[in-house]
Amino acid sequence: MYYYLDDDSLVFPHPAQVKDSGILAIGGKLYVSSLKIAYAFGVFPWYNHRSEPVIWWCPQPRYVIFPSKVRVTKSMRSYFNQGKFSVTYNQCFDQVLDFCKKITRKGEPGTWINNDIIQSYTELYNEGLAQSVEVWEGDKLVGGLYGVVLGKIFFGESMFSLKPNASKFGFITLARKLEEEGFYCIDCQIYNTHLESLGGEFISGENFLALLRTNRKNLILDPSFTF
Questions:
Q1: What pLDDT score does 50 carry?
Q2: Residue 144: which domain range?
Q3: Which helix (H) or strand (E) holds 173?
């Protein structure tokens, strides 16, 4: 049995109670206030289908990349040496989100990004809690990614590429920036081969939740929202 939320619920089960599937709860709404708290505790929303209820996930073990350990292959080093692309931050969040929504991926029939996601994460962006990374070839946007930033953790959400390795270029550039700023990790949420090629690794649920506890010490959270 899963924990079901009604539309007005501001109460989640504790992440330590997550099922082996990685699903913590089902239902509810993507209120910005609830998203802030959810991410602070390592919980993120995902849709199996745009028309279905939101599913709240907290997979354990967790797939992460530590900024200092981001992997730069020989082929990718040539992109940086040649200045193949340029990178900006938070210049066109809406376009990055739209590309992440529309770009089809191998083996996937569609995207989980729906209008609720777009509205809620745009609100997070307007509050400075969601950020985008844009990758340019000249004046053309050819790749990017977006995620949520709370404290010293970047919670990655989605990325896209219109040119080979464009999203990797953006991700590596972001990781280097986060390392300089003392970020603990990039939360990749779940495994895929693309993230593995960038240095992704699993850490235990216990270690991830401990990292989140350290990160929450400097966050101001809504006291009405509980786990």
A1: 65
A2: 63-203
A3: helix 166-180
In a domain, 9, yes or no: yes
Same domain? For 25 and 136 the reply is no
Phi/psi of residue 151, nearest 5 degrees: 60, -125
Residue 19: both structure tokens together:
């099922």
Task: Give the rounded distance of the alpha carbon of 194 from its chain centre.
Answer: 14
12: domain CATH number is 3.30.70.3550
The amino acid sitting at 221 is L
Judge whether 150 and 182 are in contact, CB under 8 Å.
no
Side chain identity, residue 224? S
CATH number at residue 100: 3.40.630.70
Contact 191, 63 (CB under 8 A): yes
How far is it, in rounded angstroms, from Cα 43 to Cα 19?
13
CA 78 to chain CA centroid, Å, is: 27
Which SS3 state, helix, strand or coil, does residue 14 take?
coil
The band of 84, judged by pLDDT with boundaries at 50, 70 and 90, is very high
Same domain, 47 and 80: no
Q: What is the pTM of this model?
A: 0.93
pLDDT in the model for residue 9: 72
Query: Is the pLDDT higher at 50 or at 4?
Result: 4
> Are 159 and 167 a contacting pair, CB within 8 Å?
yes
Extract the runs of DSSP E, i.e. beta strands, from the chain: 3-5, 23-27, 44-46, 55-57, 62-65, 86-89, 130-137, 140-150, 153-161, 185-189, 201-203
